[in-house]
Amino acid sequence: MGQEPEGRVTQLLNEWSGGRQAALGELMPLVYEELRKLAQGHLRRERAEHTLQRTALVNEAFLRLVNQQQVEWQSRSHFLALSSTLMRRILVDHARSQRAAKRGSGVKAISMDSTVGVFAEDGESEGLRIGDALAVSEDATIDLAAIDDALTRLEKFDPRQSKLVELRFFGGLTIEDIAPVLDISEATVKREWTLARAWLRSELG
C-alpha cells in the first residue's frame, strides 16, 4: 500500500498536527493517493449504478481526516488504520441512510443468513468475497449495521482482530497489506482472520 516513504508521511502529519498549515498542502497529494488505494479495496466490485462512487468516498474520508488534526500520528500505518475506520463509518452511515430511504418501498427483508454469509469461508459459493463492503452497503438483504455492531463488540475484547476485520472486509486490504499495518506476521494475520471470521459468523447467527 503506497509508494511514499513512511517517515515522510508521518513527518508531514505531525508537522500539520503541530500547527504548520503549509504541511497540509504537501501532505494532501500523499494522503489522497493513500486514500484512493484504500478506497479501491472498498470498490473492488463496484456496480456502475451504485450511488456512492470512489471519488465521493475518498473526498468524504479526506474531509473527516482534516478534522483529526489533534491526532498524535505514530506512523503511516497508523494513518491507514484511521482512514479505514473513517471509511467504515462512511459506509455504515451510507447503508443506514439507504435502508431508511428504501423502508416500506417493497425491498426484500434483511436476511441474517445473507448477513452471516458475508463471512463465509473463502471459496464457498454462497459467501460474498472480500472487498464487497460497498456493494453490501446497498444490498437490502444484508445488514451492514449489524456487522458494524458485531465488530464493535469484538473490539471490546480483541481490538486487533476487530481492526483486522475492518481492514480486510471494509478496506479490502490483502493479508500482505495488513501485516505491516498491524505490525504482525502474515501467518498471524491469516490465523486471526480465521478466528475473527468464525466469531462473527457465530455472533451474527
Description:
The chain has 205 residues and is mostly helical. It has one domain. It contains ten helices and no strands. The chain has helices spanning 6-17, 22-42, 54-66, 76-102, 112-117, 133-137, 144-157, 159-170, 175-182, 186-204. It is globular.
Topology, element by element:
Blueprint: H1 6-17, H2 22-42, H3 54-66, H4 76-102, H5 112-117, H6 133-137, H7 144-157, H8 159-170, H9 175-182, H10 186-204
Helix pairs in contact: 1-2, 2-3, 2-4, 3-4, 4-8, 7-8, 7-10, 8-10, 9-10
List keywords for this structure.
globular, mainly alpha, about 200 residues
Summarize this entry quickly.
By secondary structure, this protein is an all-alpha fold.
SS field, number of helical segments? 10
Task: Characterize the biggest β-sheet.
Answer: none
Give the % helix: 55-70%
Radius of gyration: 17 Å
- Could you tell me the mean pLDDT? 75
**C-alpha termini separation:** 33 Å
What is the tally of beta strands?
A: 0
Shape descriptor reads globular
Return residue spans where pLDDT drops below 50 for at least 5 consecutive residues.
45-49, 123-130
Which structural class is indicated by helix and strand composition?
A: mainly alpha
Q: Could you give the order of the helices and strands?
A: HHHHHHHHHH
Q: How much of the residues is beta strand, in percent?
A: under 5%
What is the count of distinct domains? 1
